[in-house]
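Aim 2, interim progress: modelling of the magnesium ion-bound target.
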Amino acid sequence: MTDILSKKLESKLDDKLISKSKRKHLEDGFKKGKVINEVLDKPTVMTLYKMITDHIIAYVNGSVSAGKESVLFWAVDDNEKNIALKIYLVSTSNFKKREPYILGDPRFSNLKKGTKNLVYLWAKKEFRNLTQCYDLGMPVPRPLYVTNNVLAMDFIGKNGSPAKTLLNSEVDAADYKQAIKIIRDLYHKAKLVHGDFSEYNIFKTENGLVVFDMGSAVDLRHPNSLEFLKRDINNITKFFSKRGLSFEDPAVLFEEIIK
Ligand SMILES: Nc1ncnc2c1ncn2[C@@H]1O[C@H](COP(=O)(O)OP(=O)(O)OP(=O)(O)O)[C@@H](O)[C@H]1O
Ligand SMILES: [Mg+2]
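Predicted structure of the complex, ligand included:
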């Protein structure tokens, strides 16, 4: 695309975002007209613009959290329903450490070289993992759409504030039980291992736990899937043990899950 055209689209998107953002008082630091260009590169802005014209979202309301490799935006669709946009950053990301979670997964065997492609593939992988789980009735955010480095899913939380993670919640024996059930169901039903299962990547909602951040989840056929499973069980056990709850021996649990 020519530079002039993309500039035009970009400023059109900015205008759209600004005019929509004026409608409501926003709680977080949404800086008018700035937010998009400071965080997102041009191709990502174009992708968001396409999502608006495709009516996946009506507008972006502001950013919710900024990680090293992704930012989470709160968007709203034409029916005023809240949507979470997980935007993987292409330019700043260090995807080297993600390779072990993609190489070896037969679902992604024809891997194209280059960071951008790896980032796009990662977004697709997270979408696919979420879909695999959601279709089985597992507690994950409902995936809505993925294109390039942008993944849209149901927003878990209220008014642009995400639900609390396990880390920031009071937890009890029922939460431990459900967390282990999720690991078990991931393995036996979805045939996946999360790979980053921890108190940081699980929401505690009034309807129970919701597991997210599924980009690292691997197929059971992945050569390291059992190693990842062991680590997931150990991590979550450590968390509940620190909170003073009783727990099963993780080694026993591991054997029991894989048998
Ligand atoms: N579906 C969602 N609804 C509401 N908030 C979400 C959703 N998914 C993610 N978030 C928010 O964004 C944060 C980061 O999401 P996630 O863990 O998927 O990304 P990440 O790349 O691991 O980022 P980080 O490095 O910060 O962990 C979460 O802690 C949560 O607050
Ligand atoms: Mg995370």
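The mean pLDDT is 87. The longest helix spans residues 3-23.
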